[in-house]
Amino acid sequence: MELLFRDDAYMKSCDANVVSADEAGIRLDRTVFYPTGGGQPGDLGCLRLEDGETIAIVDTRKGVDHEDVVHIPAEGAVVPAPGTKVVAEVDWHRRHRLMRMHTCMHLLCSVIEGDVTGGQVGDGKSRLDFNLPDTQLDKEHITNELNRLIGEDHAVEAHWISEEEMQARPELVRTMSVKPPMGGGRVRLLKIAEIDLQPCGGTHVKRTGEIGRVRIGKIENKGRQNRRVNILFDE
User: 0.90 cut: is pTM over it?
Assistant: First the structure.
């Protein structure tokens, strides 16, 4: 399957052919839909058929491996036969908000020094958990630092390295609970110029200025060492 979102997160739709389909999911030969993974939820959207009918896609998940994407149709939808031509179209408003927020979470990793123990990307509110024993975090300071980095409008870009290079640079991995997928021969890195560099397969904006203003919500203690930092769009 050709995963178009990896190279161009701004693609809103694509022509595709149905490879297989049943009530459990639809596989295409190519897709712009991002599947749930790395804390980022799967895309929503629809498949448009040549006769004008649409099939609502209510979730997108990984299949048997990280190259396999399964589009989950709405309950009761009539699924297309293999070989059917469709236009796969994501819910762009939601996707773009997830792109903005996911990129901001990389900025948060640069502002707070500590291993990431978990996280969840949302389209309006997200969280990152840090392993920070005996550390007090200042909401106002973090908010100001994030908005400073956003306002500086740093470039954001993805590139690939070999698995051998990744294994030789373990310091790039900030997440304790999620490791970069291995087995495909290469690993995707997300770089924010002069700010952050770490493995990530998610979708992101091209420049930090596109994120817009944000603010830190609650900072919660989740256990003796875990600190949960909630972040929201300041709209």
Answer: yes
